[in-house]
Design goal:
The complex is a heterodimer of chains A (about 180) and B (about 325). With about 180 residues, chain A is α+β, with helices and mostly antiparallel strands. Chain A has helices at about 1-10, 15-95; strands at about 105-110, 120-125, 130-135, 140-145, 150, 155, 160-165, 175-180. In chain A, about 50% of the residues lie in helices and about 25% in strands. Chain B has an eight-stranded antiparallel β-sheet with strand order 11-10-9-3-13-1-14-15. In chain B, strands 2, 4, 5, 6, 7, 8 and 12 form a seven-stranded mixed β-sheet that branches. With about 325 residues, chain B is an alpha+beta fold. Classes of the chains: A alpha+beta (about 180), B alpha+beta (about 325). Strand 1 (about 105-110) of chain A pairs antiparallel with strand 15 (about 315-325) of chain B.
């Protein structure tokens, strides 16, 4: 079809005019491309920001849940080791003749140094073990059943050591102490 | 013909003109592709982060459901084995009735050394180190007493007593009640001469006609109170474990005088209304004096208790303590 049309006009329209019609057509396309490009950018940016917001929300929520879950596990591990040290301390003092001989109990626990990639702290006292992170701000408190006094302290999350000592000649009970290892 | 005049170059030019345009389209497509690429990268990074978080969550929940291995199991287990083994060793040595305390002491020390080696092997199999040895003055001399008793029998100057079982033939038990027990019931008397105080334990057949046995306690022989009663008696010997607080294996708390728990003034163990009664005692007392009466020939030097230093260590646990082993001693 185009070949037939050009056959009729080719005698009167100089070849240069053909080039001018091509520029006009190119201008039309340029307008269309600009609008299309802007539209594409806008839609793309909208889509991209939507994806970022949606996925970011999912990741934030999952991060919160993961941190809570891991803090709870780390706290329970700390409590279990604290209570194990307490049982050992009681056993060490059972049937101890008077204040003869020193009592030494040490339990080392390999807790994770980071929770979901974030550092955390472990706070212990005579009632509970509390583990917390600042970002996100999550605090999990787990009560323990240790019968010996626990020296209140806060240590960085990671490997910890729980010690109980009663010196030779001293009558118990002593105090459980949690330190970083 | 016109078709012939149309210069092929015109087609060629037109074709050349369109080619750059198509390249431009391709460039524009490439631009859009960059946007999609960025979106894809964001998605990919986000998904990787999500996977890492999910993995951490699953791992921590796995740890939580796996349970936490108690660090104190093995040291407590080996300590219990050390205490039980030493207790059994002491009692077995005493039952052999050694000629002198020196031979009893040597036998127990050799046994503890052997026990230490066995426990160390057990600990080594579990990746730990254990050590058990008597302290400097680890063993104390006592008397092992096992024989028939009558009113003249007595154990003198006992500072502590353990595994004290008083067995009475049930048919020979006198009929009595809590109020009449001081004059008639078979009586074990703990005579604290230092404080001029006595504590009595009465064993009798209740005179209310029932086929039972009862135990009553009193201080200074007055206000006897029935502590417990055994419902059925098989007619044989009735063992009353005064230090463990049982009658024929049934719990009977409160038989052992509270004043004699722990470190007490030396006291004598005497008997009353035991003449002509099928009665026998077995005990280990912390005293160096020979008993009186028929018990004089029924006692032998013995090891009363052992004080041991126990150490246990693994990569995660360190446990050191001193423990005194006196099997069958009442709780303080």
């Amino acid at each position: 079809m185009s070949d037939a049309g050009s056959e009729g006009r080719s005698a009167s329209i100089p070849p240069a005019a053909g080039g001018g019609r091509g520029s006009l057509a190119a201008d039309d396309r340029a307008v269309s491309v600009t609008v299309g490009y802007v539209l594409t950018l806008a839609i793309g940016a909208l889509l991209l920001s939507g994806v970022v917001v949606a996925v970011g929300g999912v990741i934030d929520g999952q991060t919160q849940r993961t941190v809570e879950s891991e803090l709870a596990v780390a706290g329970q591990t700390a409590v279990a080791n604290l209570e194990a040290a307490d049982r050992l301390a009681r056993a060490a003092e059972a049937d101890r003749p008077g204040s003869e001989g020193d009592v030494t109990v040490a339990v080392e626990a390999d807790l994770p140094s980071r929770i979901a990639g974030r550092p955390y702290r472990i706070a212990v006292d005579s009632d509970a073990v509390a583990v917390r992170t600042d970002s996100p701000d999550v605090r999990i408190e787990i009560p323990h059943a240790a019968t010996r006094d626990v020296s209140p302290t806060t240590v960085r999350g990671g490997a910890i050591r729980i010690r109980y000592t009663v010196a030779d000649g001293a009558s118990g009970p002593g105090t459980l102490e949690v330190t970083e290892r | 013909m016109a078709d012939v005049n149309v210069p092929p170059a015109a087609d060629g030019d037109e074709a050349d003109d369109e080619r750059p345009l198509r390249d431009g389209d391709r460039f524009r497509d490439a631009d859009r592709g960059q946007l999609l690429l960025v979106a894809g990268l964001v998605m990919a990074v986000s998904l990787v982060a999500l996977v890492v978080l999910l993995n951490a969550s699953i791992y921590s929940e796995n740890l939580a459901t796996r349970g936490i291995e108690a660090a104190d199991g093995e040291p407590l287990e080996i300590r219990a084995a050390a205490v039980d083994g030493t207790g059994t060793l002491i009692d077995a040595t005493n039952r052999e009735r050694p000629d002198s305390y020196g031979s009893a002491e040597t036998a127990v020390e050799d046994g503890i050394t052997d026990l230490d080696g066995r426990l160390a092997r057990t600990a080594a199999e579990r990746g730990g180190i254990s050590q058990l040895n008597p302290t400097g003055d680890g063993l104390r001399e006592g008397r092992y007493v096992a024989g028939s008793v009558d009113d003249s029998a007595a154990v003198r100057d006992a500072e502590r007593t353990r595994a004290f079982v008083f067995a009475v033939g049930e048919p020979s038990l006198p009929d009595a009640s809590a109020s009449t027990a001081p004059g008639t019931a078979v009586t074990v008397v703990f005579n604290r001469t230092g404080s001029n105080t006595t504590h009595e334990v009465y064993v009798y057949d209740p005179d209310d006609g029932s086929d039972e046995a009862a135990v009553a306690t009193a201080t200074n022989g007055t206000d006897a109170t029935e502590t417990c009663r055994l419902e059925t008696v098989d007619g044989g010997r009735l063992p009353v474990d005064l230090t463990a607080g049982t009658i024929d294996g049934e719990p009977c708390p409160g038989i052992w005088p509270a004043e004699l728990r722990g470190d007490a003034d030396p006291y004598d163990i005497e008997f009353a209304n035991a003449d002509g009664v099928d009665a026998e005692m077995t005990a280990t007392a912390l005293t160096t004096r020979e008993p009186d009466g028929p018990l004089a020939d029924a006692s032998s030097p013995a090891v009363y208790d052992a004080t041991l230093r126990f150490r246990y260590r693994t990569a995660d646990v360190r446990f050191e303590t001193t423990v005194r082993v006196a099997p069958g001693e009442p709780d303080e």
